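Retro notes (design track)

What went well: tokenization of the new backbones is finally stable.
What didn't: we kept losing track of which sequence belonged to which structure.
Fix going forward: every design gets posted as structure first, then sequence, in one message. First example under the new rule, 244 residues:
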């Protein structure tokens, strides 16, 4: 199972000039390529449903290499973050995208609302849960938390034909706890309750289950009220830790 038609995306945003990105990409490609493990890469690609090639780096090894890549480099500006992300996205092996996601998550406070179109491209280009979910919760979620005007963009994303964009809208409040906009959380779940795809139904259950850690009674009441519209998968995931 590879990327479906929903995995297509629009035009790639322009990559800004960045001396820091030049330095990081040179270090990154050298360090990651030298540590590649073709045998592990094949099993990782199979596990990820053949979405993309891999270098075969374990997460601990990859993050250790990333620390050496970032050693003695200055804090990035938004243009640097954009350049690093887009240049990593242009490389075929998946681990480069993982580096970019970690980098964006670490420096999300350097990003402004103007980064949202870039984030949408990152979400929709060769998408799979391994990159989309972290971008949703930690990058897009951070942007919306910093600029509430972007809630209107999430209102559009939840209706997007690209299921990964819609999944991002569902998951963007995953870490908001007491600051969760519950009207949007529950409203988005209802708007996509009938979606046929597993990844949307699973996301509905996941965001409800996460919010149940903050307000279990609100989630129970919502599920009871909307049970006939929600899929069994969404209901099961929502109530997993709190019961009916």
């Amino acid at each position: 199972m590879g990327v479906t038609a929903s995995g297509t995306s629009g035009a790639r945003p322009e990559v800004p000039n960045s001396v820091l990105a030049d330095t990081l990409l040179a270090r990154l490609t050298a360090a990651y390529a030298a540590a590649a493990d073709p045998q592990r890469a094949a099993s990782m690609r199979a596990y990820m449903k053949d979405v993309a090639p891999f270098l075969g780096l374990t997460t601990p090894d990859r993050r250790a290499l990333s620390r050496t890549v970032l050693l003695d480099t200055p804090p990035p500006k938004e243009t640097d973050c954009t350049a690093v992300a887009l240049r990593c996205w242009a490389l075929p092996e998946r681990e480069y995208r993982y580096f970019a996601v970690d980098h964006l998550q670490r420096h999300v406070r350097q990003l402004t609302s103007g980064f949202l179109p870039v984030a949408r491209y990152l979400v929709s280009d060769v998408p799979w849960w391994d990159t989309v979910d972290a971008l949703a919760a930690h990058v897009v979620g951070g942007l919306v938390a910093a600029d509430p005007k972007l809630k209107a963009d999430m209102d559009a994303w939840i209706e997007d034909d690209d299921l990964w964009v819609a999944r991002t809208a569902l998951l963007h409040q995953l870490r908001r706890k007491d600051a969760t906009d519950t009207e949007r959380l529950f409203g988005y779940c209802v708007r996509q309750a009938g979606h046929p795809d597993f990844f949307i139904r699973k996301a509905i259950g996941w965001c409800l289950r996460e919010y149940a850690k903050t307000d279990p009674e609100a989630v129970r009441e919502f599920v009871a009220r909307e049970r006939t519209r929600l899929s069994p998968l969404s209901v099961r995931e929502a109530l997993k830790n709190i019961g009916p």
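Added context from the reviewer: Residues 170 and 188 are 6 Å apart (CA to CA).
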